[in-house]
Amino acid sequence: MNEFDLAVIGLGYVGMPLAKEAAGAGLRVVGLDVDAGKVDALNAGQSYIDDLTDADLDQMLKNGFTATFDEAVLARADTIVICVPTPLDDDHRPDLSAVEGATKAVSRHLTAGTLVVLESTTWPGTTDEVARPLLESSGLVAGRDFHLAFSPERIDPGNPKFGLRNTPKVVGGYTPACLDRAAAFYARFVEQVVRVSGTREAEMAKLLENTYRHVNIALVNEMAIFCDELGVDLWESIEAAATKPFGFQKFLPGPGVGGHCIPVDPSYLSYTVRKLGYPFRFVELAQEINERMPAYVVARVQRLLNRHRKAVNGSRVLLLGVTYKPDIADERETPAVPLARALRELGAELAFVDPYVKDWRVDGSNVPREDDLAEAVAAADITVLLQQHSVFDLATIEERAGLVLDTRGVLAEGERVERL
Ligand code: SAJ
């Protein structure tokens, strides 16, 4: 009998909700991370995860959860789940270094009968072609001596309705026996397990989910640009289209696509397709359109100021909401950074308001933070609404602001207020 039912590698926004649900279901859970700071914070009951309160963590610690950076614990766990980041490198190519590092650690301590699951979002074939050889360098054989599966994470930071337990969990096994073992594991604390025939189908399901969003966001972004020129209120047309009770899902234009999923995951798919010798055109086009949105916002700022006989150069430009989406503190890939960079190059005097961001640096230099929304919008030559955090009082913005460019379509348009 192993000391642990589950070892989670990677104690971030995916690993910790998994550890929490498993511990809550009575599993004996240990967390492994290479970041000693995270390990110490967790063992001290201090959560750094948006969706995990200190009270949640306290309950986990009471349920026997511990965090460690000693990889030897992996030899004492029935199941090992890898939840490490899969970012893109500077050339926009998949960076599997964290996955490889974690998998090598597992291989160094792999024991017969263990179930190993990869949850990190990655290109179809990674589990079989990258993880399995590394694990088998232990001398154990996948499907015979240990079980191997892939199950995509579907954690949506800040989502009040869906968490790990009530979000269906897709699982693909290297063999049918691997699938049975992995499905039984997740069934202990997830309401619905969705079995697919192999690890590639599970890897692909995740990439389809997020590529679908990426492409449809790009669609409405591109439409926003030409609808402005056509004099069509796209925001109204989208709301009207959304009344269709079937066959349509609403997406809204914005200042660009941020986060650790949507701008990243589709590139894992286009990278794989390119290996076949041709491009995945939808993704590459969507990437180009979404990445162009910050520059388009700058052009609209210039036009609105110009209509009021002002130049960007020397104007006070206030950015409201610099995270990547409303009501969370995450700034990864936020479109506010390229936007701020371009406005600075045009000579704008920048400031920002964001209750989730205490200090904000763009290219190493600090952007002044305003605490009082009403005063800040009144003092600015133009306000750009980027993320409509719930705490922002929209009426105050409409009443007190000089000029406003609303990139989220939540303000009433008027002489001084334009929507993207
Ligand atoms: N965005 C738009 N227009 C839209 C929707 C999003 O511009 O209509 C922008 C957002 O402002 C943000 C970016 O796209 O910058 C991504 O937004 P998102 O709503 O997709 O949020 P994420 O990145 O947190 O995506 C996560 C994903 N969850 C997982 O990968 C497990 C995604 O699959 C979820 O569908 C999404 O949350 C969600 O539904 O909230």
Automatic annotation (TrEMBL):
Classification via SUPFAM superfamilies: 6-phosphogluconate dehydrogenase C-terminal domain-like, NAD(P)-binding Rossmann-fold domains, UDP-glucose/GDP-mannose dehydrogenase C-terminal domain
Single GO BP term: polysaccharide biosynthetic process
Recorded GO MF terms: NAD binding; oxidoreductase activity, acting on the CH-CH group of donors, NAD or NADP as acceptor; oxidoreductase activity, acting on the CH-OH group of donors, NAD or NADP as acceptor
Keyword terms, alphabetized: NAD, Oxidoreductase
InterPro entries on file: 6-PGluconate_DH-like_C_sf, NAD(P)-bd_dom_sf, UDP-Glc/GDP-Man, UDP-Glc/GDP-Man_DH_C, UDP-Glc/GDP-Man_DH_C_sf, UDP-Glc/GDP-Man_DH_dimer, UDP-Glc/GDP-Man_DH_N, UDP_ManNAc/GlcNAc_DH
Highest rank taxon of the organism: Bacteria
Pfam family, one: UDPG_MGDP_dh
Location of the UDP-glucose/GDP-mannose dehydrogenase C-terminal domain: 318-413
Protein family per UniProt: Belongs to the UDP-glucose/GDP-mannose dehydrogenase family.
NCBIfam families in the cross-refs: NDP-sugDHase
Protein name in UniProt: Nucleotide sugar dehydrogenase
